[in-house]
Amino acid sequence: MTGLVLHNYWRSSTSYRVRIALAMKGLDYEYVPHHLRYGEHLEPAYKAVNPQGLVPALILEDGRLLSQSLAIIEYLDETVPEPPLLPDTAIGRARVRMLAQIIACDIHPVNNLRVLTSLRTVFRAGDQDVVNWFRHWVNESFQPLETMLSSSSETGTFCHGDTPGLADICLAAQVLNNTRFGVDMSPYPVISRIHEACMALPAFQRAAPKNQIDAES
To answer: What stretch of H or E contains 22?
Structure first.
């Protein structure tokens, strides 16, 4: 697979998910940054690429657009099968999607930049209010996620067995995002252990926000 173009932002956790998947699959791509805090993703030129004005967006060699990180990752997994990001059984795939979606569908939608910005601009929330909001919604999902992972024999070094996959990609990106808001990870030893195992892998390291061309200190 060649000619891929990834529109993303270094600190976006959803962009980080896709970068991890691309790195795990060994795929090269053109990196196109859009600074979310400066509103570059809302400019007409980018809206012509992705009408949602969101990152990440992956442009295929034939010019077709894929957006939404989970859809992009599953496309990559179907078209570049090795290494697999989903198990080879229906129940295994369902479990991994369940774990991934706890993060991607329950935490991220209420804690992304546009929601946090609206809290400040529309509802006049202060900085500490925004931090408390972020922590609350992380904990609402991390508490049951920790229980699911710690109580299942299917949990191994990673979320499902001893090879990283879709759920680990989402977990790693979320845990890293948590550090910006001072989320206390001590109640989540299994999540923390899995995150540490992920961050020991070259693909996760290469895709990390601090290693991107648009990273800021």
So the answer is: helix 13-24
What order of strands is seen across the sheet that includes strand 5-8? 30-33, 5-8, 57-59, 65-67
Tell me: the pLDDT tens digits for 137-196? 999 999 999 999 999 999 999 999 999 999 999 999 999 999 999 999 999 999 999 999
Which residue in 188, 216, 19 sits closest to 102, CA to CA?
A: 188
Collapse the DSSP code of 197 into the 3-class scheme (helix H, G, I; strand E, B; otherwise coil) and give the result.
helix
Distance CA 209, CA 205 (A): 9
pTM to 2 decimals? 0.97
- Name the maximum alpha-carbon separation found in the chain: 49
In this structure, are strands 30-33 and 57-59 parallel, antiparallel, or unpaired?
Answer: unpaired
Q: Are strands 30-33 and 65-67 parallel, antiparallel or unpaired?
A: unpaired
> How many CB atoms within 10 Å of residue 135?
17
Q: Collapsing DSSP states into helix, strand and coil, what is residue 55?
A: coil
How many CA atoms are closer than 13 Å to the CA of 108, on its beta-carbon side? 23
Nearest-CA neighbor of 41 among 5, 8, 72? 8
